[in-house]
Amino acid sequence: MKIIVPSAGPVPDQRTAGYVINIAKRLNAQLVVLRVLMEKETEAVGEQSLSLFIEKGKKEKVPVIGILRRGDIASVIIEVAEEKSVDLIILGVSRGEIVAEWLNAEAMEKTDIPVLIIPKWVPPADRS
To answer: Where is the UspA domain (predicted)?
Structure first.
């Protein structure tokens, strides 16, 4: 099984990363972490964002592939999900954030891959 999780911002939330790594571990899945760079962001910023997932994956023995791309967020998520033949898309959502603002509902209709929404205020998932 393969799971893709897009990472937004230069530093992903540690609780969300831990929660996603725990899901991948329990499902014996490979995790594809996608960082879509904004127009003026450097690759170094993107690599920093990916490193949290990669480090947590190593610690928990979860295989993690980090990918940097540029482009429209929703389109890139779907493109990479299809390229990597993922089985599940996991999205983190902040309080008050409407999913349609981050990944518009139209994009979710363009793929048959299931989408799981994880609130960013989930409790830590460092338990086995």
So the answer is: 2-95
